[in-house]
Design goal:
Elements (H helix, E strand, L loop, with lengths): L1 H79 L5 H26 L1
Helix pairs in contact: 1-2
């Protein structure tokens, strides 16, 4: 009987150690998960910040391009209503088409 109790006690200790080891592994995994979660939160915040900086930059550039282009396009429209030869009209048309493209490019940037 004593032998059975001793054997049971030893097996119980073995199982207790195994359970403790499993608990330690689970605790380590939980700790790693928390660390990774914190790292991902930081990375997400950094990405959000970079995206905002990009959007702010594009808004400023868009404004800086559109403001003078509006003036240029106004003068081009005035020029189109003045007497010109064919070659001059072609040049003004090129300026107008290029200006129209320049005005729409910043709109494309903001849409992204």
């Amino acid at each position: 009987m004593r032998n059975i109790k001793t054997q049971y006690s030893e097996e119980s200790k073995i199982w207790e150690r195994k359970i403790e080891n499993e608990r330690a592994v689970l605790n380590e995994l939980r700790h790693r998960e928390q660390q990774r979660s914190a790292e991902l939160d930081i990375a997400r915040k950094d990405a959000d910040s970079a995206n905002k900086a990009k959007s702010d930059f594009l808004a400023i550039i868009s404004h800086e391009i559109r403001t003078p282009m509006t003036g240029i396009m106004g003068v081009v429209d005035l020029m189109r209503h003045t007497p010109m030869n064919t070659e001059q009209r072609e040049y003004v048309d090129v300026i107008k088409n290029s200006g129209d493209t320049m005005v729409t490019v910043p709109m494309f940037w903001r849409a992204r």
